[in-house]
C-alpha cells in the first residue's frame, strides 16, 4: 500500500511536470491556466512523448524511469509557478481521493480485455519499437489506442506489469478534481452560463463516481468516454467566455484530440472542432502557432502508427487502405467486421436466421435490446436519479437558467452527439462504448427544453448538494469494500494476473512463445507472456529489417 501511494504521488508529480513544461512551451495565455488544465496537458504531452519515442525505441522500463524522472525534475524546477495552484483545497482533494483510490485499486480484477489484447499490446510496446503489421499478430492490436500507448509508460520494473493501472487511479483522481474545481468555481456565480457549468459538472461527477466506481470497468472505454465529456465541458467554457476564449479553445482541442485518438468511435465530434474554429474566427495567432504544430504532429504520429500496424490510415475505413504496403492483410477488415457482428449480440441469438440475414435490415435489434435493456436502464437511472432528486427539492430559492443566446451552440452539440450515437448503434452497440453519448444527449435535450429553467440554487441549498454528493461517495466506498471482503484469497493491493503456460522456440533468430491453453478461456490469451506471444505461428511470417524493425506478414489463404 505504501509502495502504491509513493508511486501515485511521484507519477502525479511527473504529469504535472510534463504538463507545466508543455503548457509554458505551446499554450497561448498560459498564465491563466488552472491546475486541472495543467493535468489535462500532462495527459496530452506524455501520450505524445511515448508515441513519438516508440517510432525509434521500445518503451522499456529504463526509458520510463528516465521519462518520469524528467517529469519530476520539471515539477521541482517549476515549483515556484506551481505553488499558486497547490493551495490547501487542491492538496486536500488530492489526498482525499488518493486515499479513496486505495479502495478503488485494491486487488482489482483486470478489465475483461486486459489479458486478451491490452496487456499483450503493452508487452509488445515495451519490448520492440513500432512493429509493422502488428494486426497480423493479433486482430485487436491493429487498433492503436492512445490510452494503451500512455499505459506503456507505467511499465516501471523489469518484467513487472502490476503498476500499469496506476494510470487509471491518476485518471480517476484527475476527473474528480476537474469536476470539483468547476463546481467550486461556479458555486456562487449568478449568471446563466456559470450555473449551467455548475450543473454539468455536478451531474457528471455523480455519474462518474456512481457508475464507474470499480477499476475493472476501465478499459480504453471509460477514459475515451470521459475525455469526450471533459471536452464538452471546455466547449461550454469556450462558448461562454470572451476573455479566455482562445485558452479554452486550446484546451478543448487537446481534450477532443485525446478522446478521438483513444477511441476512434468519437471521430464524428470533429464537427465540434470545426465549429470551435469558427467561434474563434479562425484566429491566425492560434492557427500559425506552436500549439497548432503540436496538435498536427500528435495527429500525424497517431495516423502513422495506425498505418504501420495495419497498412491503413484509419481503421475500420476501407477507403483509407489505398496504399496497401507489403504488410497489409486484405482479410483484416473482414475480420474486424466479424468482431462488430459479435457486438450485435449474435452469440445469444436463438432464431433461424443466418449471420448475414441477422445483420440485414436491423433484424438484430430485438435480440440486442433484450440482452442490453437492463444495462441501459441502469445507466439511465444512475445518471437521471440525481437530476430528479434536485428537481424535487427545487421549491424555494430556485435559480433561472436562460440560455437562449447559446441555443445554436447547444444544437450543434446535440447534432454531433446524434451522429455519434447512430454510428455507435449501427456499428458496435456495446453499452460501455457509447453510454456517454446517451447521457450527454439527455443532458443537452433537457437544456434546450428548459428543464433546468427552475432548479435548486446551490448558494442557498448547499447542504442538499453536499448530501447527494456524500451519498455517491458512500455508494463508492460500500461497493469497493464489499468487493474486497468477497476476495477469497490472500488480500493484496496489487492485481493478480492469470498465469498462462507456454513453450518457446527460436525461429529466424526470434524467440517465439506459444500458449499452452487450459480449460479456462483466460488461459488461451497472452497476458504478460514475453514478446513474441501467440497461440499459433503457422499463418504468419516474422522478419527483422537491418534497422531493427519487425515486420509481420500474414500468409494468404
What labels describe this entry?
58% helix; mainly alpha; 20 helices; 3-stranded mixed sheet
Topology of this structure?
Blueprint: H1 2-26, H2 35-54, H3 61-77, H4 79-82, H5 88-105, H6 114-127, H7 146-151, H8 166-185, H9 192-211, H10 221-239, H11 245-262, H12 270-279, H13 284-287, H14 290-310, H15 332-342, H16 355-358, H17 365-393, E1 398-400, H18 407-427, H19 431-448, E2 454-456, H20 462-485, E3 501-507, E4 510-516, E5 533-534, E6 540-544, E7 550-554
Parallel strand pairs: 4-5
Antiparallel strand pairs: 1-2, 3-4, 6-7
Helix pairs in contact: 1-2, 1-3, 2-8, 2-11, 5-8, 8-9, 9-10, 9-17, 10-11, 10-19, 11-12, 11-14, 17-19, 18-19
Could you characterize the architecture of this molecule?
It is a single chain. The protein has helices spanning 2-26, 35-54, 61-77, 79-82, 88-105, 114-127, 146-151, 166-185, 192-211, 221-239, 245-262, 270-279, 284-287, 290-310, 332-342, 355-358, 365-393, 407-427, 431-448, 462-485; strands at 398-400, 454-456, 501-507, 510-516, 533-534, 540-544, 550-554. Helix 1 (2-26) crosses helix 3, helix 11 runs parallel beside helix 14 (290-310) and helix 18 (407-427) runs antiparallel to helix 19. It is mainly alpha-helical. It has 20 helices and seven strands. The strands form three sheets. A three-stranded mixed beta sheet has the order 3-4-5, with no helix packed on it. The mean pLDDT is 88. The relative contact order is 0.12.
